[in-house]
Each structure stands twice: as structure tokens, then as C-alpha cells.
Specification:
This protein is an alpha/beta fold and about 230 residues long. Helix content is about 40%, strand content about 10%.
Length: about 230
């Protein structure tokens, strides 16, 4: 019954907008033809706000801009921080409720190299600009992540999985290091990037270029205008 109602939601409207093509592939595999009214308009980033800056700090800072849930990979980050304690780790996001938020923050403060913090959305660009590596360790339930695109726009190299819509912007070995979350490997990828400045800079440049050329907010606005005009708007 759940899947029947899901499919109805995709087929009843004249247009259903998805933020990545993974939605179309999933629906097509479940019910071929039901994907015919799905329009893909990828997520966006304001590339004029999320811009690269020069490094002014010592050491390697690893940023995880994710909600504090297992599906978003927060446990994988904790394991990586213990495997490679020579780097600094920052997780910026909220847990399921205030009690869990407080527990996570307190636990992080007891660790020498790991912090859990919250940050207003309008201030997030500053966090990216003070980091060396971004990790998107999602295990499930992911579209084309805004955090991924913001990291890329700020010129950060990325460690990610290919869950959901992440593969829309991630090319393993070109602009990111990709690992399989069910078999570990996040820590090794972080360590590889941390030890290779040339690879970090190369992937960072490519990510900035991809963000500007493919996912800038003006591209997103133009695509939405085109869709609305198709329906007489």
C-alpha cells in the first residue's frame, strides 16, 4: 500500500520535480513508465557566496556538514577520527532532538580532535572556507546533497559515497575519493587526501569549476522558469 501511494504521487501530477536522476531510475525500476512525468532539476549552490579562500591555519581540518544520524554517516566519521587522530574533525549539523544534540556536543568536547556543533545556514560558507577536506559519508536517504555542492563551490576536495543522488556530481578519482560505506574506508580516503596536497588542490579546482558550470543557482532558476513556462506560467 505504501509503494502504491508513492507511485501515485509520481504519476498523478502533470509534473513531478526531482533534484536528481536517481529518483527517475528508482521509479522506472519499480514501475516502468511511471517515471514519464518526472522532471529532473538538480539542486543548486550560490557560487558567489560559497567561494574558495586561502588556507591560513596549520594542520588538516576535516568537515562533515551532515545531520547527526547513522544514515548520514556520523558513526563513520567518529570511527575515522579515532583511526587517524592526527587530523581535526568538525561535524556541523543537528541530531534528532535537543537532548541528542547536547549529548553529542558534550561527547565531542571530551575528544581531543572531534567537535559537534550547530551553525546557522547563513553562516555555513565560513565553515567550508576554514576546512581542508569535506566528507559526505551518507549510507542511505540522499538526494543531490546541498552540502556536497556547497563544499565543491568552496573548492574543497571531497570524500563521499555514491548513495542516492551523490553520483550526479561525484566522479571517483577526478573530483572526489569514493568509498563503499558498508565496507569501511572513510578514514583511509581522508588520510590519502591529507597526505597529498597536490591531489587536494587539483580536486578542489575541479570541484569549483563543476559547481560554477553545472550547479550555480542561476542555472537552477532558468530550469525552473522553463518548466513553469511549459505549463503556461
Amino acid at each position: 500500500e505504501f509503494f502504491k501511494r508513492q507511485l501515485y504521487g509520481f504519476t498523478a501530477p502533470d509534473a513531478c520535480v526531482a533534484v536528481d536522476s536517481n529518483v527517475r531510475r528508482v521509479i522506472a525500476s519499480m514501475s516502468p513508465g511511471s517515471e514519464s512525468r518526472i522532471y529532473v532539476i538538480p539542486n543548486f549552490v550560490d557560487t558567489k557566496k560559497f567561494v574558495p579562500t586561502k588556507k591560513t591555519w596549520e594542520g588538516i581540518r576535516v568537515l562533515c556538514p551532515r545531520r547527526l544520524t547513522q544514515l548520514r554517516g556520523c558513526n563513520d566519521l567518529i570511527v575515522a577520527s579515532q583511526q587517524y587522530p592526527e587530523y581535526q574533525y568538525l561535524s556541523v549539523g543537528q541530531a534528532g532532538n535537543e537532548i541528542l544534540d547536547r549529548k553529542a556536543k558534550a561527547w565531542g568536547e571530551s575528544m581531543p580532535n572531534l567537535r559537534f556543533v550547530n551553525m546557522p545556514m547563513e553562516e555555513m560558507h565560513k565553515v567550508y572556507q576554514q576546512s581542508d577536506i569535506a566528507v559526505i559519508p551518507t549510507r542511505a536517504c540522499e538526494g543531490l546533497s546541498l552540502s556536497l555542492l556547497e563544499s565543491m563551490s568552496c573548492g574543497l576536495p571531497v570524500v563521499a559515497t555514491t548513495v542516492g543522488g551523490l553520483c550526479e556530481a561525484v566522479i571517483s578519482g577526478y573530483n572526489a575519493l569514493v568509498y563503499e560505506p558498508n565496507h569501511g574506508g572513510l578514514g583511509k580516503c581522508i588520510d590519502a587526501l591529507a597526505k597529498d596536497q597536490g591531489m587536494r588542490e587539483r580536486m578542489g579546482r575541479r570541484n569549483r569549476e563543476i559547481a560554477v558550470e553545472c550547479f550555480d543557482i542561476e542555472i537552477w532558476r532558468d530550469q525552473w522558469r522553463g518548466l513553469i513556462k511549459n505549463f503556461g506560467g
